[in-house]
Amino acid sequence: FGPIKAVDNVSFNVEKGEVLGFLGPNGAGKSTTLRIIAGYLPPNEGTVKIDGKEFWEDQIGAKGKIGYMPESTPLYKEMTPYEYLSFLAEIHGLEDIGQKVEKVFKLANLDSIRNQLIGTISKGFRSRLIFAGAIIHDPPILLLDEPTDGLDPNQKNEIRGLIKSLSKEKAIIVSTHILEEVDAMCSRVIIISEGHLVLDGTPQDLRNASEKNNRIIVSLRSEDKAKVSELLSSVLIPVAGGSEQFERYRIENSELISDIQSKLSNAGIVFKELYYYNTPLDEAFSKLTISKE
């Protein structure tokens, strides 16, 4: 976009059976990347391949393999959902249109608004209708930009479950800023910041990116702190969450938790809890992206 590089040297692949969480702060280049993959925006450099074939060699064939749910999609407010999905099915050249529409109506749980004008339905139902439109032709690839935006908790769970079930036979990319969705449905995570790829791995890899991950937390009586520090040859860092009699500490130590437990027990140290600290995804995400800004 003029002098601004929205996406710079971002390269990855997605296989059938994967749900890829595509994360990044606002303005990172997520939606731009999805538009390029979907063929709505040609890249200045680089390429997109579908089943090993260059996208631009057969744009119509490539687009037919993709179901794309943009962040915001204009809808025909004077149509009913049934008419709208039938119209999309006709554009895709599908046979048995009525059967195809009934299938996605059931999948997206839209039957209650079947004959209601689109201009009168709620934001949540509009999101589900757009999702239904993306899967009407049963594409092998789904690109979903904020698919649960505007949905209530029950509707979110329905869509997440649907995405996971569809992933068995599809390659799915989900762009989202809701980190709980990564744990709920993603098998892999990519994070971009300022147009650059900063992580490609599993949700656990994202957690491991935080220096705090897998640190050991222990609750001790405050009078035992010095003794435990000497016993473990480790610094004990106070953390929040202690009780009246027990203080909580983070152990700066690479020992196994079972070895630490044995040492404390053998030394007669009373402890209330001993566990690995697992970094929240939002904390790990912030570490990777804020440092890039």
TrEMBL record:
Pfam family, one: ABC_tran
The keyword Membrane is annotated on this UniProt entry: no
Domain ABC transporter: 1-219
Keywords for the protein's UniProt record, in alphabetical order: ATP-binding, Nucleotide-binding, Transport
An example Gene Ontology molecular-function term: ATP binding
Transmembrane domains' residue ranges: none
Keyword flag Repeat: no
Family: Belongs to the ABC transporter superfamily.
Protein known as: ABC transporter domain-containing protein
